[in-house]
Amino acid sequence: MARYPLPPSPRSQGPGRPAIWGKRLELRTLFNDSDALTTESLSLYGKKQLLSYQTVDLHWDSPKNLVRFVLVLWSEGKQSILLSNDLNLSGVEIVIAYSWRFEIEVTFQTLIEILSGFSYRFWMKNMPRSSRNPKNMNIKEYSEPEPFKIIEKVEAFERFVNLNALVLGILQVLSLEIPAGILKSFSGWFRTVSSSGHQA
Which residue from 58, 167, 172, 182 could staple onto 2, CB 3.0 to 4.6 Å apart? Predict the structure, then answer.
């Protein structure tokens, strides 16, 4: 459920607190107006796809900031609603950006679940205890030498993530260059690999 921008205030303000939202809008009702949709052919997920879309700027979770919604109707009839807080992006650019996001999803899954690339914990003994996340990350409020130690900690975190990304790249190159040798030496079991050794 989104909301329209608040219209200009009337000359006479009635009793009660002033409104901060415009009218409510059920986003999926916008698909009913087929004349408002623009049809284009885009290259997505490695192939040409015909889709229809409409771009509209509405409020979502803040009465101060607008969000750009892109309502996408795919050729097979599936409906999608994408959103971006960057109002400079066109509807087509937002659709393409989302397609890139899903293309790299497997990479993030591998970094997280297999290589533990984001398991590095940002924490220092001299930082105040917190149940989940550090509440004070403003290094200017720490006395010497804590700011320098915090900067070193951030750099160590970045190195850890970058090294994991490099390891993932090396593993991908090896899997492309010597797949037969890897499968021959692998003692585990793949659900997607048949008994012939070829990936299903």
Answer: 58
The answer to whether position 133 is within a domain reads yes
Rounded CA separation 121/163 (Å): 16
Domain tally, the chain: 2
Cα distance between residue 148 and residue 24, in whole Å = 49
User: What Cα–Cα distance (Å) separates residue 131 from each residue in 67, 116, 126, 127, 134?
Assistant: 32, 22, 15, 12, 8
For residue 99, is it within any domain? Answer: no
Q: What's the pLDDT tens digit per position in 60-83? A: 888 888 999 999 999 888 999 999
Tokens of 22: 């415009």
Residue matched to tokens 């550090």: 134
Distance in angstroms (rounded) separating the CA atoms of residues 26 and 155: 45
Q: Token pair 């989940």 is at which residue? A: 132
For 121, the token pair is 């914990």
State CA 38 to chain mean position distance. 25
Closest residue by Cα to residue 152 from 139, 162, 166: 139
Give a yes or no: residue 191 inside a domain: no
pLDDT tens digits, one per residue of 17-49: 777 778 888 988 999 988 899 999 988 877 888
